[in-house]
Design brief:
The protein is an alpha+beta fold. Helices cover 43% and strands 18% of the residues.
């Protein structure tokens, strides 16, 4: 599939490779602000919401807001309102079951589309695509751009060769940042950085012992043989401190994988005889002229006019093609080559949303300010409560002449305590001893907090109705249902845009299946959506077919299955179908058991009919079977006009 590893790299070649590496590094550097926004959105969605840096007024040093609040002796409170919004969107996506359908342009070949749909659904199952898409959607909400990589090969995790789809971490991606097409059609560079062990680098790229020695010499065998010990695992620090050249851990090797749209001078050829077109290298012009001369000679010999002879027409042009490279951080090429895929493109599915005039936003950053206002208001209220009086006791000390201060305090807090008071002229008990509780916060603080909580739901588009919260008393059920439906329109753009990304991903996956599924196979999928014939994948029929992709609502949702079962039951009650047909097409959980019982009973009845009847002459049985096969006799037996009142009555025989 790929070219052999280049072991000996000349000085001129190394310089060119360094230039390509610098281009990849420039694309990486141009996305630093986008990665910074991604890290901040992830922090507010899942991590510490007081992690922004501020200047300490006492030391002029930059510290986090959390450290500044702790320095003042307070606790940085937070009420994460972003995480439930993301969970709600993720739940709606998972609940909206869809299915990718392949359709051919020639309706006579509908079975080919069904066959391709089964193969694509099989690839979805082995790649756990539902979980992968859910993860990509969450990353799209946080970063505004996502990617997935489609490959064919051996997967060590599954121990098999097949088509695999891998999720791409946006923190590891790089691409030309001057894109403006939401479909990604103006990409001319895309790739990602990998961190892997030295053994894995050798396993992937070494084709000989010399290659192994060369790769170990590049990375340093002794350097990567020691064990790395860390105490911050599963905390995502490698994504926060990511650089282009250095790996995230000292025991790993950095491998840079990049695609670049390159060009070369070539002839664009069109063969009028075969109806094909291609690009031919400039040095092969003589081959084209030789073929045209041969066709002219053969046509002239057969009496064909020269202007009617079908030739190969070619014109000078510049061919653009995708070229991939696996590189070390020093510019050495581990593997390179033109795109090996039939679609002649890179193997990434890329998507950015929302993108307006070349600027990519992300969903979460729209309401980060509201989240900060909520946290600040809660912390402010906590500050006020901490500084206000709580059970403050005010005592007129001269009224307790016979008691010390310590005795007054002890008796006041003691159960059934007694205080001896001598109030002065005109004093009452409130003037002698009084307990004061200060107001913890003004009413406006709570109103501000409620306002921010309402604003964050309005801005995100996930309001209380969509979250399934209880409606206020007196709200009609129809009104609440309408509110839920209207609120879903706020997220329609997000889901439709993500559907477009999945369609492009599935189309490239389908093209990879067409190319690499070269042998016939039986793809056994559970369910009744496909015929048994379509489950036999025939590459000869599929590889040359023009197939389109459609993503439709899935048929395995509970509501769809309920409607389907009701429709089949109505047909059965009207005697339009038999019970076997109904059970084969229904979604009842007990349908398969009943079908097995019916088939078993049918087989037993068939076996009983084939067994000879004991005690009856075989010749009589043969005669009965011949009479049963006589259609005229059977018609007369079933004719009610020949019926008699004595039919079936045994007549006595007169002697």
């Amino acid at each position: 599939m790929h070219k052999k590893v280049e072991k000996d790299i000349s000085v001129s070649k190394r310089k060119r490779n360094s230039d390509i590496l610098d281009e990849f590094a420039a694309c990486w550097a141009s996305l630093e602000e986008a990665r910074s926004k991604l890290r901040r959105s992830v922090m507010y969605a899942y991590e510490d919401q007081w992690g922004d840096y501020v200047k300490d007024p006492d030391t002029d040093m930059v510290i986090t807001e959390s450290d500044l609040i702790k320095k003042n002796g307070k606790v940085p409170l937070k009420n994460n309102m972003i995480s439930p919004i993301i969970k709600n969107i993720d739940g709606q996506f998972r609940n909206n079951v869809t299915q990718t359908i392949c359709s051919v342009r020639d309706q006579k070949e509908a079975k080919i589309g069904e066959m391709m749909s089964i193969a694509l659904e099989y690839v979805h199952e082995i790649n756990e695509m539902d979980e992968l898409d859910s993860d990509s959607l969450r990353l799209l909400l946080c970063g505004g751009f996502i990617g997935q990589r489609i490959e064919y090969g051996f997967n060590p995790a599954r121990r098999m060769n097949d088509v695999w789809v891998f999720g791409v971490n946006p923190s590891r991606m790089f691409f030309n940042s001057n894109i403006e097409d939401v479909r990604g059609w103006d990409l001319n560079c895309i790739g990602e950085v990998f961190d892997m062990t030295l053994d894995k680098v050798v396993a992937l790229f070494a084709k000989s012992a010399a290659d192994k020695e060369w790769i170990e010499g590049l990375y340093g065998k002794d350097r990567y043989s020691s064990m790395y010990v860390g105490y911050d695992g599963l905390q995502g620090r490698q994504n926060r401190d990511m650089t282009f050249y250095a790996p995230s851990r000292p025991d790993l090797c950095r491998v840079i994988f990049g695609w670049k749209l390159e060009s070369r001078e070539a002839y664009f050829c069109q063969d009028e005889l075969k109806g094909t077109y291609w690009w031919e290298d400039l040095k092969n012009r003589s081959l084209l002229d030789t073929e045209n001369e041969r066709r002219i000679a053969e046509g002239t010999a057969q009496g064909v006019a020269q202007e009617d002879i079908l030739l190969i027409n070619y014109d000078y042009g510049n061919e653009q093609y995708w070229y991939y490279r696996y590189m070390t951080p020093w510019g050495d090429i581990l593997q390179e080559g033109k795109s090996p895929y039939w679609h002649e493109e890179h193997n990434y599915a890329f998507h950015a949303y929302p993108m307006v005039q070349g600027k990519v936003f992300n969903y979460i950053e729209d309401f980060i300010d509201q989240q900060r206002a909520i946290n600040r208001t809660m912390t402010l209220i906590d500050f006020i409560r901490g500084a206000s009086s709580k059970g403050l006791l005010i005592v007129a000390e001269d009224a307790f002449e016979c008691m010390t201060r310590e005795e007054i305090v002890d008796e006041y807090v003691r159960y059934n305590g007694v205080l001896f008071v001598k109030p002065k002229q005109g004093q009452n008990l409130d003037n002698v001893i009084k307990q004061v509780n200060g107001q913890a916060a003004v009413q406006g603080d709570y109103e501000l907090l409620n306002l921010q909580l309402k604003l964050i739901n309005d801005i995100s588009g996930v309001n209380s109705a969509m979250q399934g919260k209880q409606a206020p008393s007196g709200t009609a059920a129809s009104l609440y249902a309408q509110q839920v439906q209207n609120s879903s329109l706020n997220l329609k753009g997000l889901f439709d845009s993500f559907r477009s990304f999945r369609k492009r991903r599935d189309y490239k996956t389908m093209q990879t299946i067409q190319q690499y599924y070269t042998s016939a196979r039986h793809i056994d999928l559970s369910g009744k959506d496909y015929s048994e014939e379509a489950k036999y994948y025939n590459p000869d029929k599929v590889q040359g077919a023009q197939i389109d992709i459609q993503i439709t609502e899935g048929s395995n949702t509970p509501s769809f299955q309920m409607l389907e079962n009701e429709f089949l039951m109505s047909l059965f009650e009207k005697n339009a179908i038999d019970v076997k047909t109904m059970l084969e097409n229904s979604s009842y959980p007990f349908a398969s058991k009943i079908l097995e019982s019916i088939k078993r009973n049918e087989e037993e009845m068939a076996n009983m009919q084939q067994m000879p009847i004991q005690g009856i002459d075989p010749q009589i049985i043969q005669q009965m079977q011949q009479q049963a096969a006589n259609p005229e006799l059977m018609r007369m037996m079933n004719d009610d006009s020949r019926a008699s009142s004595k039919d079936g009555v045994v007549q006595s025989v007169k002697s």
